[in-house]
Amino acid sequence: GLLSSWQIAAPTVRTLSSSPPQSIPRCLWKLGRLNHVAIAVPDLEKAQSLYKDILGARVSQTVALPEHGVYTVFVELGNTKLELLHPLGEKSPIASFLQKNKMGGMHHICIEVDDIRAAMAELKRKEIRILSEEPKTGAHGKPVIFLHPKDCHGVLVELEEA
């Protein structure tokens, strides 16, 4: 009959090893949760109003971070945050971003790590460029580094020690 002309293959069962293959060394640091997505905005007050007054989110006060050349505002979400970025000074990296992107847009993502120095050492060994020699203090008062977007598929990645 019709069924006898079909080939029926038995499902393949694959098992996952509980230990990594010998060729892949274990990381000395651990990647954690998404901390925030940062959005560069040309008008900080308007952006704050959108999230607070129109969408009903909890929005922080504006904080100046001169070391990073930005004003920041955090929008609290259930599982993460949005960071609104606005230039602080003409040499701000956000000012140059907004020159290219007049309406603003996503600037970077921030992922937590448990040991930023171990992460830096391993990423350097793996030839991932870090945009500073030493961690800086980020908006949450914790050490942060940024990874070059060309090494991260076009995305500027911030790592923050949890």
UniProtKB/TrEMBL annotation:
Listed NCBIfam families: metmalonyl_epim
Keyword annotations: Cobalt, Isomerase, Metal-binding
Pfam families: Glyoxalase_4 (PF13669)
Reactions it catalyzes: (R)-methylmalonyl-CoA = (S)-methylmalonyl-CoA
InterPro entries attached to this UniProt entry: Glyas_Bleomycin-R_OHBP_Dase (IPR029068), MeMalonyl-CoA_epimerase (IPR017515), MMCE/EMCE_epimerase (IPR051785), VOC_core (IPR037523)
Protein name stated in the entry: Methylmalonyl-CoA epimerase, mitochondrial
Annotated EC: 5.1.99.1
Recorded family membership: Belongs to the methylmalonyl-CoA epimerase family.
Domain VOC per the UniProt entry, residue ranges: 33-162
GO biological process, one term: L-methylmalonyl-CoA metabolic process
Classification via PANTHER family: METHYLMALONYL-COA EPIMERASE, METHYLMALONYL-COA EPIMERASE, MITOCHONDRIAL
Organism taxonomic ancestry: Eukaryota, Metazoa, Chordata, Craniata, Vertebrata
GO molecular function: metal ion binding; methylmalonyl-CoA epimerase activity
Organism of derivation: Ceyx cyanopectus
Protein role: Methylmalonyl-CoA epimerase involved in propionyl-CoA metabolism.
One GO cellular component, as annotated: mitochondrion
